[in-house]
Amino acid sequence: MVDFTHHPLPAFLVDHDLNIKGQSRLATELFSKPDSFLDFVDSGSKQKALELIKDQEEFELVLNTVESPYMLFKVFARWHDGEGQLLCVRQDSQIMELSSMLQMQRDRLAETNFDLLDKKEELEEAMSKIKRLSSPFLPISSSLSVIPLFGSLDEELFLINEQQLLSTLQNGNYEYVILDFNGIGEIEERGVFAFQSFYRMIQLIGVSPILSGLKPQHVFQLMENDFNVDQTFHITGSLKDAISQYNLS
Amino acid sequence: MPIDIEKLTNTLLEGEEDHAWELIENKAELMENSHLTFEVLTSAMQLVGKLWEENKITVADEHLATTTCDYVLSRYAYTKKKSKQSPNGKRALFLCIDQEQHYLGLKMISLLFEEYGWETRLLGANLPLEYAVHTVKKWQPSVVGISVAILYHAEQLKNYVSELGTLQSQPEILVGGRLASNYDLTKYCSENTVLVPGLKEIKLWLEEQKGDVSNHG
Ligand code: B12
After folding, report:
1. What is the value of pTM for the model shown?
2. Chain B, window 67-126: residues with a beta carbon less than 8 angstroms from a chain A beta carbon
């Protein structure tokens, strides 16, 4: 039989009915000398202990110790020939640490002013307004119009403006539309996809799109993201060039 | 229950605060009725307790669920701020007794009071008696709400009730929490202490108080 007195953990040897047959020195320090294991199981843990102790190897229980009426332990149970070895490993120090971390998080949460959420929504609305203004529509003649793009070429720019621009183009019976990149700074990868689909749709409604004001860096970024800057695209230099070229034709 | 408690409990245990919030926010019924929302969150936390008893989760998981639930509560309270009743000029102080960490219920109650127009202070978990006394003397609340969840704290409760009862301002003392729901705490309380088993009862109490206010014009 294992020598329980010198077991390095608080440990108990119990019989089938959880009566204590032997215990380690550490167990005595923590729990004194109870008759039954159940004697020091907290009321809120008793049911759990009864249900699990025989068929699970590891579970948490709240136990009464000499020091404290309730302390959290992880209990390891091994049964052999109707005898059980129960090891009790204190969880509190670990839990305390975790708990204090959470406490900090909670305090931070309390500070998280939910006003921030409101502000965020306001900001998003303002952003969306700005985006709407970032691609105005300029009719130049009965057949030519210009869409000067501003800001960063991102998905939203098109999400917000696409429908309206397309219907204006279609209703106006334009032949050409110049998409001017002069005001565009950054080009985002997802913006390129959105742009490509916008471009296709313009073609679909029977209008020829022309790109102008592309900076070398734009072309590079567009190509890098698989936008085919090939022959089928009308690319001109500046907006002025584009207008004079297509206004005449 | 207006929503799937198991689902809500899982989001709490996973620490998915945004998801948990969505579950609440998407139910008009819950957004209108705090009482119902608190009931739902209480059930979810009780289910957390059941899962621990079944050895399916650990206390570490309970901690995360608690923080997540707390977040949802704060966010809920923030959203509801606009629909608060006009101030009734009364003050209520809320605390958990010394060593008591179970504060979620107390927070719900304090939010409910706010909604009814009370000015509240939530001192929260683990408040030593001397601080409680100090704050009551200084802030002069007409109600002090105390929460207890752990059985061993019942003895302590007695001290709180009697000490706060001797104060000159004579605040009304309400006692709630898991213990008040599950045990008869009369012997730890005084004659004037109001024992509140749960949400239903506190709502009734609040409605009654409202009646009082209007009676006094
Ligand atoms: C979550 C939880 C925790 C969280 C704390 C949550 C928190 N901050 O509130 C953490 C993980 C920190 C925790 C720790 C501990 N817990 Co704990 N915990 C729970 C659990 C699972 C749920 C509690 C909960 O949040 N309920 C939901 C709330 C909203 O319900 P409520 O408090 O009852 O409140 C409602 C009403 O009572 C009312 N109300 C509440 N207060 C007030 C006040 C007033 C004035 C009024 C009018 C009304 C009112 O309003 C609410 C509305 O619905 C319970 C299990 C269970 N079934 O309850 C165990 C439980 C309460 N914990 C327990 C224990 C033992 C502990 C620990 C000692 C050990 C451990 N597990 O690590 C520690 C130490 C804590 C300490 N010193 O206080 C035991 C208590 C056993 C006993 N003998 O009494 C329980 C029963 C688990 C168990 N079966 O063993 N716990």
Report:
1. 0.74
2. 67, 70-71, 74-75, 78-79
